[in-house]
Amino acid sequence: MTIFPACELLLGAILKNPVNRPDYYILHENIVVKQKIGDGAFGDVFIGELKKPGGNSVDVAIKMLKGVMTKKERANFMMEAKIMRRFNHENIVNLLGVAVQEYPVMIVLELCPNGALDSKLRKNPSIPVQKLIQYTVDACRGMVYLSGR
C-alpha cells in the first residue's frame, strides 16, 4: 500500500481501501484542448482529443465551464452527467465523461463532425426540403427516446 505522507498530515487519515471513480470521470491530463468552435452562457466549446486507455485517442467536443462551482452546483452537475451517461441513441450526442478534479471543469462529448445543426442551417439556407424533413424526423426520434427515459 502506498501512503502519501502529505495527505496523511493534512487529513489525519489513511485510505486503506481504494475508492474507484466512475468510468465517466476523466482526468484532465487525458484531454487535449485544440480549437475553440463556439461559446455559450456556461462556457466555451472546443474540439479536442481524449486519450483512451491503451494509447488510442478519439476526437471529441469539450465544453469548458466558466468559473468556480459551488458544492451544490457540482452535485447537480454530477447528477446530470450521471443521467446523461445512460442515454444511448443515434440522434443524441453521447456524453463521454466529465473532468471535475480540477478547474476548469470539462464536459467531454461525442464530436459531431459536421458541426451543430443550427449553424449548418444558418450557413446554408437552400438545403433541400427532403433533407430538412430528415433532420426534423431525426430530431423527433431523439426527443421520443428522451421522453421515454
UniProtKB/TrEMBL annotation:
Membrane-protein topology: Peripheral membrane protein
Molecular function terms from GO: ATP binding; non-membrane spanning protein tyrosine kinase activity
Alphabetical list of InterPro entries matching this protein: Kinase-like_dom_sf, Non-receptor_tyrosine_kinases, Prot_kinase_dom, Protein_kinase_ATP_BS, Ser-Thr/Tyr_kinase_cat_dom, Tyr_kinase_cat_dom
EC identifiers of the protein: 2.7.10.2
Catalysed transformations (reactions): L-tyrosyl-[protein] + ATP = O-phospho-L-tyrosyl-[protein] + ADP + H(+)
Compartment(s) of residence: Cell membrane; Cytoplasm
Keyword S-adenosyl-L-methionine appears in the UniProt entry: no
Binding site for ATP: K63
Top-level taxon of origin: Eukaryota
Domain Protein kinase span(s) in chain numbering: 31-149
Keywords linked to the UniProt accession: ATP-binding, Cell membrane, Cytoplasm, Kinase, Membrane, Nucleotide-binding, SH2 domain, Transferase, Tyrosine-protein kinase
One term under GO cellular component: plasma membrane
Pfam families: PK_Tyr_Ser-Thr
Enzyme class: transferase
Family, as annotated: Belongs to the protein kinase superfamily. Tyr protein kinase family. Fes/fps subfamily.
UniProt name for this protein: non-specific protein-tyrosine kinase
Native species: Gongylonema pulchrum
Phylogenetic lineage: Eukaryota, Metazoa, Ecdysozoa, Nematoda, Chromadorea
